[in-house]
């Protein structure tokens, strides 16, 4: 829901001057027409929060997760673990825990950006395309991005096998049973939940804050590194980093995070299809 425009502060940007009041909920600024604190025509990254806000949010959000991870590692040390077949109950628990963690991330993103500067969620990119041609641009980015990240993943797997050894399965793949229920739960997590919450945090908040301070190129690179590191698996570090770069570029050029959510969802859906048919064939 949009915030009350009467209480809304205008999104600050280095190249945009003070707005002059116009119709209710809309203001005229040198950079273009503003709707509920978002100037139409501005590139993502022209927002009031910067790298310090991003750093505070990431550190505060990651601290308890890191502590729990360390405690879990220490408590399991010295105990023998036996491989257990994944179940639907375990997969559902994994989805709920992922939702809790991702909502925790988005909360701190909201706290250090939208709440702090009194902006609406449109500032995270939840706005439609401003030009009809943007749909075509988004479609090209999604198709080209899926192909590029697939190729990068294959190259990364080859390099990992040559340098490290056999490529381990992604952590998320081992959670879901190869059943109809497991497939449905996998789709819910990877195609619906993860793209929405992760894109809100990593592109809507992290990328924009870093781009505001350091420019879109360096901001895209660093946000992609943060995105890759968050997945905590060396074998997929390179392809996820490449995916993060493409997602930052998609957001920058289309100005709408809906492109990112679609791109992220399609990419994950293709991975799920590969997982399903490879196991079925085997």
What does this entry look like structurally?
With 282 residues, this protein is mostly helical. The protein folds into 2 domains: 1-42, no CATH class; 50-62 and 86-281, no CATH class. It contains 8 helices and 4 strands; from the N terminus they run ββββαααααααα. It has helices spanning 51-76, 88-111, 114-117, 133-163, 180-214, 216-230, 237-254, 257-281; strands at 20-21, 26-29, 32-35, 38-39. Helix 4 (133-163) crosses helix 8 (257-281), helix 5 (180-214) runs antiparallel to helix 8 and helix 6 crosses helix 7 (237-254).
What would the keywords be for this entry?
single chain, 282 residues, mainly alpha, four-stranded antiparallel β-sheet, 8 helices, 63% helix, disordered N terminus
Question: In short, what is this structure?
Answer:
This protein has 282 residues and is mainly alpha-helical. The chain is built from eight helices and four strands.
Distance between the termini: 47 Å
Largest sheet: 4 strands, antiparallel
Net shape: globular
- Report the β-strand fraction as a percent range: under 5%
How many discrete structural domains?
Answer: 2
Q: Which class best fits the helix and strand makeup? A: mainly alpha
Oligomer: single chain
Mean pLDDT: 82
Helix content: 55-70%
């Amino acid at each position: 829901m949009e915030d009350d425009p009467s209480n809304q502060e205008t999104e600050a940007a280095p190249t945009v001057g003070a707005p002059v009041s116009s119709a209710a909920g809309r203001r005229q600024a040198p950079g273009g027409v503003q709707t509920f604190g978002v100037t139409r025509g501005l590139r993502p990254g022209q927002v009031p929060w910067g790298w310090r806000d991003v750093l505070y949010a990431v550190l505060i959000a990651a601290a308890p997760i890191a502590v729990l991870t360390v405690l879990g590692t220490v408590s399991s040390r010295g105990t023998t673990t036996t491989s257990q077949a994944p179940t639907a109950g375990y997969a559902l628990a994994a989805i709920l825990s992922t939702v809790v963690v991702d909502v925790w991330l988005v909360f701190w993103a909201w706290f250090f950006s939208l709440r702090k500067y009194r902006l609406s969620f449109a500032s995270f990119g939840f706005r439609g395309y401003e030009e009809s041609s943007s749909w075509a641009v988004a479609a090209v980015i999604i198709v080209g991005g899926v192909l590029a990240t697939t190729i990068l993943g294959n190259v990364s797997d080859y390099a990992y096998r040559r340098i490290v050894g056999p490529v381990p399965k992604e952590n998320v793949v081992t959670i879901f049973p190869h059943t109809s229920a497991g497939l449905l739960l996998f789709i819910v997590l990877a195609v619906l939940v993860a793209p929405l919450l992760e894109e809100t945090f990593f592109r809507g908040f992290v990328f924009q804050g870093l781009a505001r301070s350091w420019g879109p190129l360096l901001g895209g690179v660093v946000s992609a590194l943060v995105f890759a590191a968050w997945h905590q698996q060396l074998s997929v570090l390179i392809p996820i980093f490449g995916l993060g770069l493409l997602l930052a570029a998609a957001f920058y050029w289309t100005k709408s995070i809906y492109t990112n959510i679609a791109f992220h969802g399609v990419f994950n859906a293709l991975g799920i299809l590969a997982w399903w048919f490879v196991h079925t064939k085997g």
